[in-house]
Specification:
The relative contact order is 0.32. The strands form two sheets. Strands 2, 4, 5, 6, 9, 10 and 11 form a seven-stranded mixed beta sheet that branches. Strands 1-3-8-7 form a four-stranded antiparallel beta sheet, with no helix packed on it. By secondary structure, the chain is mainly beta. The protein contains no helices and eleven strands.
Amino acid sequence: QVQLVESGGRLVQAGDSLRLSCAASGRTFSSRGMAWFRQAPGKEREFVAAIRWDGGAVNYGESVKGRFTISRSNARNTVYLQMNSLKPEDTAVYYCAAGRGTADWGPPESLYDYWGQGTQVTVSS
């Protein structure tokens, strides 16, 4: 019902900024919560940010709070992740996820039924 495609990941230097995009297809994007997760090689998947269906509320993981900003455009069926002051520890594959409905947003992975393939972000020191 929902397909997600991430883009924007690349190699950057510490302190740089980068904006990731997640394009969604389907008729119900505007009624779903959305989130970003990330996973480094050999590590478990980590919550990054989430946004309510209407963009009226957001939630961030402690490691990115104050540096990353999640936003969405329901008219364009797209969610964004603006990353500032990047650190080498931010290196990971970043995944976009779509929740089951309007109440499905936040840190728990169990809230999300749809996942993209991921985009690689590498931050050099």
